[in-house]
Design a protein that fits this description.
It contains six helices and two strands, in the order ααααααββ. It has helices spanning 2-19, 26-65, 69-101, 106-143, 148-177, 180-187, and strands at residues 190-193, 196-199. Helices cover 82% and strands 4% of the residues. By secondary structure, it is mainly α. It has one domain (2-18, 25-185). Helix 2 (26-65) runs antiparallel to helix 3 (69-101).
Amino acid sequence: MRLQFMLFLVFALFTTSLCKGQELSFRDTIKEYNMQRIIINVKGMQVLGSWGIANMAVGGVGYFAAKNDEWKYFHEMNAAFGFVNTGIATYGMLQARRQAMAKLDMNKAYIDYKRDKKILIVSIGLDAAYMGVGYALLQKGEKDHSNPNLYKGFGRSLMLQGAFLLMFDNFMLIAHQKYSGRWATILDEMRFTGNGLSYTHTF
């Protein structure tokens, strides 16, 4: 099933490249934009999943190999982030496969596009918060001697994970933003109603 899905995406990329320079119908235009959105998400989930697996592997080995508690906590938090990120990536891939195989719904395609961008914007805020909390824990570890290794280890991990995710989510947002102008050019001709979408073109 996974192989079929990836072949489907390769075929979609190939056919999309063939269509460049040709005038597309309204429906075909929406279909192309929606497929590009799905492809961006698939590539992003592959990167996130790889990062997650690497963190689980390195974090697990690092935890047992660390010579002091600070680095044990550091690797422990990285492994936990890796587990969560791998889960998110797996879910994202399953969602992308379901959307790619589903019958095109032009109204839903645009709603999904806007939703993806909103999720990324919220995620960017959370990424900055991770880094802020990590820095605060690091500073606490310098002053609070009750359990400095835990504060410093978790703090360094949160700063690392937050920095990566901040970069990742920004790149994803930029990739989706590339198609914002193209969506905008057809918005004037798209009319959403409670029952779906209508299209009006002025000659």
